[in-house]
C-alpha cells in the first residue's frame, strides 16, 4: 500500500469531523449513570408533522461490538425518501460485557420504546420496519421470531409486530453447528430465528454474498423456503463473489436500490429510487485509507467495537497499513483471542502469510498460543 503524505492525514481528520450525523439522539434505556441511545434521521432533517413509517437499523459485529454509524449512509438515503430512520445502540460484549441474549432484550426494548413514543418521535407506530446486518440482522428478525427473550422491565403488553424486515448477510442459524451456538447453547432454540419461523412474520428481503464465510448460502435458501411454507413473502438476493459485510463496500448502491424497490413494493416508498448505480463502485482512495487506518489502530488497541465499525464501513480486512502485518496477524501477535475470532468471523483469511513468511496458524503455534491454535484449527 502506497505511502500517504502528511497533508492527506490532516484532510482525513477533517473528513472524520464531517461524518454523517443524526438529526436527533434520544436515550431509550438507562443503566445506572449511562443510557442506550437512538440515532434518528428525519426527512429534510425535520420531524414529520404527521406519523411517518420508520426503519429501525441494528448494527452488526457478532454481538461483540459495533456502532450505530454502520447504517448511517442507508439511514440518510431512506430519510431523503421520506422514511424516518433510527439506528439503535444496544449493549455488546465489548461495551457492557453481556451475552447475546441481552442484545436481543435491548433490540426489543428499543422497538417498544419507539412504539410507545411514536408521537414524540414523529412516526406511525403501525408502520415500524426493522433492518440490520450480520448479528444486527439477527436482532432485526428477532423482533418477529425471538418472542420469549425480553427485558423484565419492559411493558410486555406493547406489541412487537414489524411490518417488514430488510436484512444484510443476517445471522439466521444459531443451532448446533450454526453461528454463535456456543454462546447461546443454554437457550438456543428460543434464540435462533431459523427455528422460530411463523406465519405472523412480515415480508422479508435478504441480501447475501455467496462468498460469506460466516453463514452459508444454503441456510439463506432454507430460511426462504421455510418462510414461504407458512405463507410469508421472502426475497433472497445473492451477490456473486461477495464476502461478509459487502453491503457497505462495492455493493452499497446495489443493495440500497434493492431495499428501495422492496419498500416500494410494500407501499412504504413511492416514485423512482434516487440512488445511482455505476458498473463499479469502489470507495475513493482517501476513504479506503481512512477506514484501513482505523482498522489497524483498533486491532492494536484491542477495540473490537471499532474493528467491527471500520469493517462495516468498508475497511480491507487483509490490509497491511504502512508495511504492518494484516489485522489477523496483529491480533495473534497480541494474543487477543476475541479479536482473532472477530476478524475470522468477518472473513479474514487464515492462510495469508504475514511479513515473516508464516500463516496465522503457524504464527500462533510459534507463539504457543494454545487457545488461538485450537480455534484456528477448528476453522480450517
| The number of domains | 2
Low-confidence stretches: 1-18
Number of strands: 8
Biggest sheet, open or closed, and with what strands and sense? 8 strands, mixed
Report Rg: 20 Å
Which outline best applies? globular
How much of the sequence lies in strands comes to 5-15%
| Mean residue pLDDT | 88
Helix content: 25-40%
Secondary structural class: alpha/beta
User: SSE order in H/E notation?
Assistant: HEEEHEHHHEHEHHEHEHHHHHHH
CATH class of the largest domain: Alpha Beta
Distance between the termini: 28 Å
Number of helices: 16
- CATH fold-level label of the largest domain: Rossmann fold
Neighbour order of strands in the largest sheet: 1-2-4-3-5-6-7-8
CATH superfamily of the largest domain: Alpha/Beta hydrolase fold, catalytic domain
**CATH hierarchy: architecture of the largest domain:** 3-Layer(aba) Sandwich
Short note summarizing the structure:
40% of the residues lie in helices and 14% in strands. It has 380 residues and is an alpha/beta fold.
Plain-language structure description:
Helix 11 (about 285-300) packs parallel to helix 13 and helix 14 (about 335-345) packs parallel to helix 16. The radius of gyration is 20 Å and the shape is globular. It folds into two domains: about 20-265, Alpha/Beta hydrolase fold, catalytic domain (Rossmann fold); about 285-380, Serine Threonine Protein Phosphatase 5, Tetratricopeptide repeat (Alpha Horseshoe), CATH 1.25.40. The protein is built from 16 helices and eight strands. The protein has an eight-stranded mixed β-sheet, with helices on both faces. With about 375 residues, it is of the alpha/beta class.
Amino acid at each position: 500500500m502506497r505511502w500517504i503524505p502528511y497533508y492527506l492525514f490532516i484532510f482525513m481528520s477533517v473528513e472524520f469531523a464531517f461524518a454523517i450525523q443524526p438529526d436527533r439522539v434520544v436515550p431509550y434505556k438507562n443503566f445506572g449513570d449511562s443510557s442506550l441511545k437512538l440515532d434518528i434521521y428525519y426527512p429534510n432533517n425535520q420531524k414529520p408533522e404527521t406519523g411517518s413509517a420508520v426503519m429501525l437499523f441494528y448494527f452488526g459485529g457478532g454481538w461483540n461490538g459495533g456502532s450505530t454509524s454502520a447504517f448511517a449512509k442507508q439511514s440518510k438515503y431512506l430519510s431523503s425518501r421520506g422514511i424516518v430512520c433510527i439506528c439503535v445502540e444496544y449493549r455488546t460484549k465489548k461495551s457492557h460485557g453481556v451475552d447475546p441474549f441481552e442484545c436481543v432484550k435491548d433490540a426489543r426494548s428499543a422497538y417498544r420504546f419507539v412504539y410507545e413514543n411514536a408521537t414524540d418521535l414523529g412516526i406511525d407506530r403501525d408502520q415500524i420496519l426493522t433492518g440490520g446486518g450480520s448479528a444486527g440482522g439477527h436482532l432485526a428478525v428477532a423482533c418477529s421470531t425471538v418472542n420469549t427473550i425480553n427485558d423484565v422491565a419492559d411493558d410486555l403488553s406493547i406489541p412487537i409486530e414489524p411490518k417488514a424486515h430488510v436484512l444484510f448477510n443476517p445471522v439466521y442459524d444459531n443451532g448446533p453447528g450454526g453461528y454463535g451456538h456456543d454462546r447461546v447453547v443454554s437457550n438456543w432454540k428460543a434464540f435462533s430465528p431459523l427455528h422460530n419461523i411463523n406465519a405472523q412474520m412480515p415480508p422479508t428481503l435478504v441480501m447475501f454474498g455467496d462468498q460469506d464465510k460466516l453463514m452459508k448460502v444454503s441456510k439463506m435458501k432454507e430460511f426462504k423456503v421455510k418462510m414461504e411454507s407458512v405463507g410469508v413473502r421472502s426475497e433472497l438476493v445473492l451477490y456473486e463473489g461477495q464476502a461478509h459485510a459487502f453491503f457497505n463496500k462495492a455493493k452499497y448502491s446495489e443493495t440500497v436500490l434493492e431495499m428501495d424497490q422492496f419498500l416500494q413494493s410494500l407501499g412504504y416508498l413511492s416514485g423512482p429510487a434516487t440512488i445511482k448505480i455505476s458498473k463499479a463502485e469502489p470507495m475513493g482512495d482517501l476513504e479506503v485509507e481512512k477506514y484501513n487506518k482505523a482498522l489497524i489502530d483498533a486491532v492494536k488497541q484491542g477495540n473490537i467495537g471499532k474493528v467491527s465499525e471500520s469493517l462495516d464501513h468498508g475497511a480491507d480486512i487483509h490490509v497491511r497499513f504502512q508495511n504492518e502485518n494484516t489485522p489477523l496477524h496483529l491480533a495473534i501477535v497480541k494474543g487477543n483471542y476475541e479479536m482473532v475470532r472477530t476478524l475470522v468471523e468477518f472473513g479474514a483469511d487464515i492462510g495469508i502469510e504475514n511479513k515473516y513468511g508464516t500463516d496465522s496458524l503457524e504464527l500462533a503455534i510459534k507463539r504457543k498460543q494454545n487457545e488461538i491454535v485450537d480455534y484456528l484449527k477448528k476453522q480450517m
